[in-house]
Amino acid sequence: MPRSVLERAVIAAGLALTIVATPGGCGAGGFGAELTARPEPRDLKNADGEKLSLPADEAFTIRLPKATKEAALGGTANADASAERTGAAAASADVSNGGSAAGTFQLGHAVRNATNRQIELQVAVSLAYEFETKADPPSPLPDSSVSLKIFAIDQRSRVLHDLDVALHSSDRGLAASKSSQELSFFVTLGPGDSINIYAAGQAAVGVKEGHSAASVLKLSGLKMDLLTKPAPPVRTAADGPK
To answer: Where are the domains of the chain?
Structure first.
């Protein structure tokens, strides 16, 4: 029997999800949230008013570029990624006549509350980026995509912040863009707690035979300004009523 409109829509949606997930090597929502290696955190020894400007005071210690590619029979695939401790990174992917490829990077810093009290860490991030997505022929599927995020994850791998900076795929139109952004947030750290704060970028391509696509993402001028403040004391049942 011919498939209904709803059945065809479900099949098309499943195909789209498969193409997006394959180049990145992780499921929906999982991109960038895991670190394959972690540096020794930099100790923050003053609970009130300690400042750390990155990379002016110290070079970034989280630097993880990665590139993967798999060409279809008769196709070609290329991927590249880089991350510099001074605040620049790039990722690119290019596939011709079928296959998948992805370039990814993670760039940032790890710090630890080395005081004996709970602190609030104010984080201010500024950066510039540019990206481009291409697909030939144009397709209603996300043949090429780019993503740029800011993450803050603790020593137990809990994601405390997951902030979208740039997100685009070719099914929304082939595009090139350039922009800059500033954002800020707070993280509460108990004594001995550590936090990994970093930018995560990905350029990914996944196409069938007879199709070609490419994506490029460039990050520049990444800066992070950190400032400690004493956190309000946490009340317990032993403290009694206010």
So the answer is: 5-232
